[in-house]
């Protein structure tokens, strides 16, 4: 079996999961859970790691964390070893506690943090036995679940002093009364539909991010030996950034119009122009500044590029036909 590809650099973000061997419990009671969190606090302080979200389930755990010092593997080795030693001694057992090495998904923060935090916090009510419960009962179960960072996101009095809340709350207005209320509403809305497992959207089960993010990681932190196995070969195939002129050419052909019509600042082809800006944003974000992109897109501001990106993202989410069209254009590129 191929070992997970570990990509480490300063201030990287990760979604971490650890599961009991053969799906066995890693917590047998609240004393174990308290010791787990105590060990986590000690490890965080020792390795200068930031924990932003967590949830403890009976046989697995999730973390959303940041590593300012590019030391994920050392941190997790110390933490897992310390807790496993305690657990085996207390429960008179031997052997591995966890099923293989931990899973560490490198995350593109700006695109995925908010959704990923919700995915983690919804774990307690995704169990099969709760599947048919009414929304009101699921909501109550989630609010009453103690072994998660969610309570601290909504009530300051119950916060753990080693957790960081500001980053995720920044997406809903900040660490204030309104921001905390909006975040709780955001999480609870996730009870109404299935939330995608981030592992399913990851590249080679290693990176959760846009193609431009993967290219940036590939060019700065990987070498050719990382692509020697079949498991990671399709990371090698991800293209380098595409010129805006080339993108405009393909978009124009898709819409049956002239390329110049969507490059210019004031275009009467609104959707095609927005698609051009969106794909340019996706494929070139890590290679060009917003201002540089705007200059090539008819002399608009970087702020305008960012605004259009947000608008068209919402449209793509709602409009399946448009989503297929964008996907088709990117495939051609």
Description:
By secondary structure, the protein is an alpha+beta fold. The chain has two domains: 201 residues, 2-Layer Sandwich (Alpha-Beta Plaits), CATH 3.30.70.1290; 92 residues, DnaA protein, C-terminal DNA-binding domain (Chromosomal Replication Initiator Protein Dnaa, Chain: A). 51% of the residues lie in helices and 9% in strands. The chain contains 16 helices and five strands. The longest helix is centred in the first third of the chain and has 19 residues. The model has no long low-confidence stretch (mean pLDDT 88).
Low-confidence residue ranges: none
Q: What does the overall shape look like?
A: elongated
Along the chain, the helix and strand elements come as: EHEEHEHHHHHHEHHHHHHHH
Strand order of the largest sheet: 2-3-1-4-5
CATH topology of the largest domain: Alpha-Beta Plaits
Number of strands: 5
**Percentage of residues in helical conformation:** 40-55%
Main sheet properties: 5 strands, mixed
Number of domains: 2
Strand content: 5-15%
CATH class annotation of the largest domain: Alpha Beta
The CATH architecture of the largest domain can be named as 2-Layer Sandwich
Keyword list:
single chain, 333 residues, alpha+beta, Alpha-Beta Plaits, Chromosomal Replication Initiator Protein Dnaa, Chain: A, 2 domains, 5-stranded mixed beta sheet, 9% strand
């Amino acid at each position: 079996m191929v070992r997970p590809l570990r990509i480490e650099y300063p201030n990287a973000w990760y979604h971490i999961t650890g599961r009991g061997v053969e799906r066995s419990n890693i917590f047998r009671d609240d004393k174990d859970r308290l010791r787990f969190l105590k060990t986590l606090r000690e490890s965080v302080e020792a390795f200068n790691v930031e924990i932003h979200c967590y949830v403890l389930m009976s046989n697995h755990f999730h973390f959303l964390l940041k590593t300012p010092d590019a030391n994920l593997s050392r941190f997790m080795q110390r933490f897992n070893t310390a807790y496993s030693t305690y657990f085996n001694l207390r429960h008179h057992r031997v052997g591995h506690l966890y099923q293989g090495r931990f899973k560490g998904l490198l995350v593109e923060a700006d695109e995925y943090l908010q959704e990923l935090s919700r995915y983690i916090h919804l774990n307690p009510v995704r169990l099969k036995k709760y599947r048919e419960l009414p929304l009101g009962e699921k909501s109550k179960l989630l609010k009453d679940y103690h072994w998660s960072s969610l309570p601290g996101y909504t009530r300051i009095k119950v916060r753990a002093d080693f957790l960081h809340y500001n980053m995720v709350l920044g997406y809903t207005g900040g660490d204030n009364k309104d921001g905390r209320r909006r975040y709780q509403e955001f999480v609870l809305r996730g009870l109404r539909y299935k939330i995608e497992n981030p592992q399913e959207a990851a590249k080679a089960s290693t990176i959760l991010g846009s193609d431009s993010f993967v290219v940036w990681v590939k060019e700065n932190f990987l070498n050719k030996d990382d692509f020697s196995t079949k498991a990671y070969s399709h990371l090698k195939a991800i293209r380098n950034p595409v010129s805006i002129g080339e993108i405009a050419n393909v978009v124009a052909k898709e819409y049956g119009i002239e390329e110049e019509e969507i490059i210019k600042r004031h275009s009467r082809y609104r959707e095609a122009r927005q698609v051009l800006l969106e794909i340019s944003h996706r494929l070139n974000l890590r290679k060009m500044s917003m201002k540089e992109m705007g200059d090539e897109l008819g002399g608009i501001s970087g702020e305008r590029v960012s605004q259009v990106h947000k608008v068209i993202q919402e449209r793509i989410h709602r409009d399946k036909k448009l989503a297929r069209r964008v996907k088709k254009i990117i495939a051609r590129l």
